[in-house]
Design brief:
Rossmann fold, three-stranded antiparallel beta sheet, Arc Repressor Mutant, subunit A, RNA-binding, elongated, 11 strands, two-stranded parallel ribbon, mainly alpha
RNA sequence: GGUCUCGUAGUAUAACGGUUAGUACAUCGGGUUUUCAUCCCGACAACGCGAGUUCGACUCUCGCCGAGAUCACCA
């Protein structure tokens, strides 16, 4: 049987770290089995609808490489994929229940329901609408809520992550199927859609675990086979024990993209947050995840979000891609992350800069703060030079004469490449009897005035002979 | 409050009825001709508590404690 999974978000805003995993796992499961993942937009709550949210969702999935096989944009045999456009289908299914006496119109006013609820609270008994079920409900028509007529009973089921589950009759109630505005509730719509679309695995957050018995009752009333149910534990906020949500400042997934996090790293980190394949492997490509993923190894407790580790993954991926695919391959993804000063610089030069600095990037956006001096003359800051911990014991005149020595030595280099530069630097060490820390700090600071930079010989090579010497001279005469 | 779920270092996790309880992030220390980073080496640090089953339990059972979810015309 073909495996069909779905990601069914409501368009109420961006996708953040806390909820994107319920797109990743369905994707992995589907792809692993040559099945399909459906994207379905659950937009039945008009009050919470946010304009543009659907595009945001699509954008996020596309960036992560979670391509859906059916849904908005790509279409498919079960169109439409927006619940708001499927009202006729829900009504059709609802009518089946009405005919069988399993659904009824609810004429009770919200105020009345509130009264019932209070009665129960006062008596300290749980409120169940079915205990107040009207005896002669009116014929259902649009404008009245439609309720399911539940039959209190026990259920047992298997959750692929949580294991054997069971519930008693007290959790079943007459849930609303169709709201008075004519839109179905989530509780009803997702069952109808999953059935119509042939979804075999329902993967969603654990918060739906409590309402599962009501869904089971619905499957039963329709004579539907139960899909496999997979509850995904929450991702917890860095502080406290609550699930990560926008209120905790959960960043949108695409915000990380804009900060220079690679999609590979994001996918890798998120997939491995609360899942592992039993080995000590940490770095997984999307293809490897598809191969190794298994639902029964999903952790059943919540996992805390750790941005730090995401950045570690990012560093790993930056180096991995660079090493395996080459500088150019990674460079093409850095376009938006260079400093203002690099605007006019040509690609060849930028690739060179990138090649010597890539392994110190945590995110691609670090390029902005780390490469400025490759593109424009650094502002000479003598304090930085004089107060450096290796240089402060030297007098200014000593620094000046050292710089002149350096200039003379480097001027003699015919072939300006990293090896020759290193050879010259080594000779200078011998001639001056200075420690590497002293001589190299001096040169490094004089040509960059940056808190840190790549290896000295590489920096000099990329900067070029002319620029390097000019900067050294400028500093020497500024002292 | 009812119902349900979860509980290995700060974090993410592994393993097993018998191990010095493994790995990674973080932290701290050290090494690689400067800095930052990489890389390498090292240190710190965990089975929530209490019973029971057992020759033996982190692992199985029960209780407790702690944490979370849910009880909407939201999803």
């Amino acid at each position: 049987m073909e495996i069909v999974t779905r990601f069914a978000p409501s368009p109420t805003g961006y996708i953040h770290i806390g909820n994107v995993r319920s797109a990743i796992y369905p994707y992995l499961l589907a792809k692993q089995n040559n099945g399909k993942m459906i994207l379905r937009i659950e937009d039945t709550d008009r009050a919470r609808y946010v304009d543009g949210a659907t595009e945001l969702i699509e954008d996020t999935l596309e960036w992560l490489g979670l391509n859906w096989d059916e849904g908005p944009v790509v279409g498919g045999p079960h169109e439409p994929y927006f619940q708001s456009e499927r009202k006729d289908i829900y009504i059709k299914w609802a009518k089946k229940l009405i005919e069988e006496g399993r659904a009824y119109a609810d004429p009770t006013s919200p105020e009345q329901i509130e009264k019932y609820r209070k009665e129960c609270t006062d008596k300290k008994i749980p409120f169940l609408y079915r205990n107040f079920r009207p005896e002669n409900p009116p014929k259902w028509e649009l404008g009245l809520p439609l309720r399911f007529k539940s039959e209190p009973k026990s259920y047992e089921w298997q959750d692929e992550v949580m294991g054997e589950m069971s519930s008693g009759p007290e959790v079943l109630d007459d849930i609303i199927l169709i709201k008075k505005d004519g839109f179905p509730t989530y509780n009803f719509a997702h069952i109808v859609d999953d059935a119509e679309m042939g979804v075999t695995h329902v993967m969603r957050g654990v918060e739906y675990l409590s309402s599962t018995p009501n869904y089971l009752a619905l499957y039963e009333a329709f004579g539907l086979e139960r899909p496999k149910l997979v509850s995904l534990p929450h991702i917890l906020a860095p502080q406290g024990n609550k699930k990560l949500g926008k209120r905790d400042g959960a960043k949108s997934v695409t915000e990380y993209r804009d900060d220079g996090v690679l999609a590979e790293a994001m996918l890798n980190y998120l997939a491995c947050l609360g899942w592992n394949d039993g080995t000590e492997k940490e770095i997984y490509s999307k293809e490897e995840l598809i191969k190794c993923f298994s639902v029964d190894r999903i952790q059943n407790s919540g996992a805390r979000y750790d941005e730090n580790k995401l950045y570690w993954y990012n560093g790993q991926w930056i180096r991995k891609i660079f090493d395996e695919k080459g500088a150019e391959a990674l460079y093409t993804r850095t376009k938006d992350f260079w400093p203002e000063s690099a605007k006019e610089a040509d690609d060849d030069y930028k690739v060179k800069v990138f090649s010597i600095i890539y392994d110190r990037l945590k995110t691609l956006s670090d390029l902005r703060s780390m490469t400025d001096y490759f593109f424009k003359e650094p502002k000479i800051d003598l304090d930085m030079l004089v107060k450096n911990k290796f240089l402060k014991k030297m007098s200014e005149s000593e620094i000046e004469s050292l710089l002149k020595l350096v200039v003379r030595k480097l001027s003699d280099i015919n072939k300006w490449d990293a090896d020759s530069i290193q050879a010259a630097l080594n000779e200078l060490l011998n001639e001056t009897k200075k420690k590497p820390a002293e001589l190299f700090s001096l040169i490094r600071i004089a040509i960059s005035f940056a808190p840190f930079s790549p290896a000295l010989n590489l920096t000099l090579e990329v900067l070029g002979k002319e620029t390097s010497l000019a900067r050294l001279n400028a500093v020497a005469s500024a002292i």
